[in-house]
Amino acid sequence: MKMHIPEDNPQYKALKREIIRYRRKPGPLIQVLHRAQEIFGYLPPEVQFFVAKELNVPLSSVYGVVTFYNFFRTEPVARHIINICMGTACHVKGAANVAEALSKELGIKIGETTEDKMFTLSTARCFGACGLAPVMMINDEVYGKLTPERAVEIVKKYREEHGGA
Ligand code: FES
Fold it and tell me: Tell me: the pLDDT tens digits for 108-148?
């Protein structure tokens, strides 16, 4: 099967880092799929394909795991996923304050989705942009050097520009 994977896309780069981290551990598939779902909000076919390729396991095994566990989703819940980096560099530079401010602004906790299905708030580890810490991604767009106020501004603007209530 052929599938186009934009490997320079920051979400795929973040996933690749996770795969490298888990690859050497026993039974990495479920862990990697968890991380993938955190990064993308769900597991579309191209992400499953990427995981299979990078872990060197058959696509049918990935698909089997995704369909077996209720936890995994193959359809998006929200239109946009916000990922706050909780890696060391971002943590040191105040990622928790950014997370708290966004959680308050959106009225949801990490892992939840807004009622209008506009945003899911999630966290991930190290997007490889530590020099810009603290960092968040909205879908595949990276925003760095955040303050809690700036993060809230960006999300508000994003809502204006991309529709929603
Ligand atoms: S720790 Fe956040 S980008 Fe590296």
Answer: 999 999 999 999 999 988 888 999 999 999 999 999 999 99
At a CB cut-off of 8 Å and minimum separation 6, what does 39 contact?
11, 14, 15, 18, 81, 83, 122, 124
**pLDDT at residue number 121:** 96
- Rounded CA gap, 41 and 92, in Å? 25
Report the C-alpha gap between 143 and 102 in whole angstroms. Answer: 14
Could you tell which of 11, 17, 85, 98 is best to mutate to test the pocket of ligand 1, judged by most ligand atoms within 8 Å of the CB?
Answer: 85
Distance 92 CA to ligand 1 centre (A): 10
* Token pair 């490889």 in the structure block, residue: 128
